[in-house]
Amino acid sequence: MSDAPPILLWLRRDFRLSDHPALSAAVASGRPIVPVFIRDSEVDALGAAPKWRLGLGLAQHEKALANCGSRLVLRTGAPLACLQSLIEETGATSVYWSRLYDPSSIARDQEVKETLKSQGIEARSFGGHLLFEPWSVETKTGGFYRVYSPMWRAVKDRDVAAPLAAPVRIAPPKNWPQSERIEDWSLDAAMARGAAIVRPYVRLGEAAAQDRLAEFTNGAISDYVAQRDIPSVDGTSGLSENLTLGEISPHQCWHAGMRAHLGGAPGAETFLKELVWREFAYHLIYHTPHIAQRNWKPDWDRFAWNEDAGHPHVQAWMQGRTGIPFVDAGMRELYVTGRMHNRARMIVASYLTKHLLSHWKIGLKWFEACLVDWDPASNAMGWQWSAGSGPDATPYFRVFNPVTQLDKFDPERHYTNRWIAEGQGAPSNTALSYFSAIPKSWALSPDMPYPAAIISPQEGRQRALSAYETRGF
Q1: Is residue 279 in a domain?
Q2: E strands of 285-438, at which residues?
Q3: Does residue 247 contact residue 16 with C-beta atoms inside 8 Å?
Q4: N or C terminus of the chain: which is more exposed, having fewer CB within 10 Å?
Q5: Predicted pLDDT at 396
Q6: In terms of pLDDT, which residue wins out, 393 or 156?
Q7: CATH code for position 274
Q8: 34 phi, psi to nearest 5 deg
Q9: SS3 76
Q10: Is the distance from CB of 267 to CB of 223 less than 8 angstroms?
Q11: What pTM, to 2 d.p., does this model score?
Q12: What angle do CA 296, 43, 47 make, to 5 degrees?
């Protein structure tokens, strides 16, 4: 046991032992380490699925820490007050954490750092959630990037630090402070009966994330360019679920992707581009934080979207009952698995914002409630990209036709048959499981007839184009 004062390791979205710069620095100091997670207002504000997935990740990481001779201390309250209390209880003189980049996290972390430093406590933040710190990527004129492609060209040949090894042992303090129990937090409460349906689709923890990365880079990455757009095929990495909670680092993904690229895998560069697309989302939420709450392009403030989430058309969209199979299959996949194929995400987002002329904020909030891979930056940029109001957006006049898109990407209807039960003589278990996951108050049954389209693709496209023209777009 060391007599040196301990370091508080404040965990947030970094539930891993390997390639964890804050943890590595703490271990290198030779001092005792007290890992802590704080249930603050940001955690309480999470939607049902991401809060549930956070709880699963915490419990799994608690086991990983125990295997290294450590523990996870859980506290509830304002982070600054909780950390100050732990400093008094443990005699800690340092607090380390991994940086986050959304507006709420930045404001919270600045307050913590400034206050602790003023009280003589070492307060250090580290990278690890991104490949490149947002302030380190600049245009030739010194500004930030507003368009993805030039940002990709600017960073694709940069050196990316090699991943750090996981510690074998984490030095414990002489006396552990009291901890709350994660079971008492009831982070799964809002998921209700849906938790049991979604759970088999979760790949939980650092070891599972590493296995997922290895499986992808040794297999599907070769056909990634073509297969990633086919919703019925397991052609993507699936790593968004693990990246959002830091169960794997982007550096680890980058280096694995680069090895595949140098080995001649045809889809590896596209995978690397997707990692930088995630970086672009964080680049924007850091430099233009209003993207999380307001139209990134202010001209769209004059567009009169429907903002009533209770509108019958919006409710049909949420329930996967629009009568448009590609849209409905995507929304049902979301409810059963906690995720949605990226091609389907584009289709359902375009349908809500363009065919139904409903505000992207409605979709943003629904995804925030339902996605186990919810990410504040990617969710905000994705919705504004689809709506046309965001950076690097799909042109406002491009209205995806969900029927022709289905013909192109699911011509044999494998995807829609997997998720839509109505009208099938022998529905798949995945299609039926949707009715076991949804709230009983929806009163939906697989025996109901499949609905007629609430808005046809042709009518929706014309409505959207007319609305854009009326408002001078």
Answers
A1: yes
A2: none
A3: yes
A4: N
A5: 67
A6: 156
A7: 1.25.40.80
A8: -120, 100
A9: strand
A10: yes
A11: 0.96
A12: 65
